[in-house]
Amino acid sequence: MTEQxxxxxxxxxxxxxxxxxxxxxxxxQWAIRNPKPAIAxxxxxxxxxxxxxxxxxxxxxxDLAIPATDGSLIIADAKDVFAGWIDPDFGRWCADEHEPGxxxxxxxxxxxxxxxxxxxxxxxxASLAPSSLSEDEAIKFVKTHFCLTQAxxxxxxxxxxxxxxxxxxxxxxxxxxxxxxxxxxxxxxGGRLEVxxxxxxxxxxxxxxxxxxxxxxxxx
Length: 220
Fold this sequence. Notes:
alpha/beta; 7 helices; 2 domains; 220 residues; elongated
């Protein structure tokens, strides 16, 4: 921001200072003693505000629950769910194994987004990371926060089929053998499901014209 913009922002805060009265006395004193962390919290809240415009993603649904699972399922074996087709690259690319620690999984809440801008997977997922991060930091943030397990992906498909893109793909990020992949679930004629696998850092650019979807865990 320029100095002029900063001054204008401060003037607006002074103009509406009565809203600070909603803070408790303890919180007011903390903010006075710790101005830098207080400003950082304010910036983070603005950056992550609901309804913030995105050139790549648009929120479709939130707070969808994936029930707890025992973590035993992998996509390559879920022939009853993906009865149409399962990409053989799950096996060829070693995308068919559990990650350590996936033996038991608690209930998780996820959000569904529509892809509204042309982009590859890294850019699509990174658009959900805080804008203050560098490109490399954003990718690390994505890998840390936006993976689902294969069992959770299967459970989402079973529990929330109405949120799958009905004329294209719905994407899920997952990890296998310390590599990152994206599962693409397709709804075909008669509701039969097919699933493909893509490398997270692959070169494919997905067109916004198809209004494809993305499912990610909610940030804590």
